[in-house]
Write a structure and sequence with these properties.
This protein is α/β, with parallel strands linked by helices. 34% of the residues lie in helices and 26% in strands. It has a single domain, classed as 3-Layer(aba) Sandwich (Rossmann fold), CATH 3.40.50. It is built from 7 helices and 7 strands; from the N terminus they run H-H-E-H-E-H-E-H-E-H-E-H-E-E. It has a 7-stranded mixed sheet, with helices on both faces.
């Protein structure tokens, strides 16, 4: 993960962050705001993994969630704090492969990942899943993640999580990269 840390620090330093400012995933909007067929998820505590400059954290806070955003790039967190100056969001400098050591809290009702997991090596993905699964969840806690192959998601998450839904997500970047979105619920 050290090489990825360096790479992302350089990207933010030179101002190359094409993932910044992308639209909020439609599936996350549907979960938070509801749809004609489903009510919104009740607000509570949320964890935004790999929050970058805070787009999803800000969106969630604007919809009544108490949010903790985690990223390992200090410059990204500085930008997130500036963008969210009028909101109460806890932005934490931490590595998502070591969440339990970061003291970020527990009892999250919702965990979102809009671009963190898919940039990791296999070993880091294993650590990520272990750390996310180790966090204490309120009963029925949900986890939404985008961008990884369905077979891999099932293999990595189904021992501790139930897949509630999966599907295509609209393209979230200028390159129109096809994306899948998954919603998991923590098993008791």
């Amino acid at each position: 993960m050290a090489s990825k840390h360096t790479l992302f620090r350089i990207f933010y330093r030179v101002g190359f962050a094409p993932w910044d400012g992308h639209p909020i995933a439609q599936n996350l909007q549907n979960l938070v705001e509801g749809t004609p067929d489903a009510p919104p998820l009740s607000t509570g505590t949320a964890l935004d993994l790999g929050c970058g400059t805070g787009d999803s954290s800000i969106y969630l806070a604007q919809h009544g969630w108490k949010v903790t955003g985690v990223d390992f790039v200090p410059r990204a967190l500085d930008k997130a704090r500036a963008k969210a100056a009028d909101l109460t969001i806890n932005f934490v400098h931490a590595d998502v492969t070591h969440l339990t050591q970061a003291g970020i809290g527990a009892d999250f009702q919702l965990i979102v990942d809009n671009g963190c997991l898919h940039n990791m090596s296999d070993g880091d993905r294993d650590a990520y899943v272990r750390e996310v699964s180790a966090l204490a969840f309120l009963p029925g806690g949900r986890f939404g993640v985008r961008g990884v192959d369905p077979g891999e998601m099932e293999r990595r998450f189904t021992p501790a999580w139930t897949l509630l839904s999966a599907g295509q997500e609209r393209e979230l970047d200028e390159e129109q990269t096809p994306t899948r979105y998954y919603l998991f619920q923590r098993r008791p």
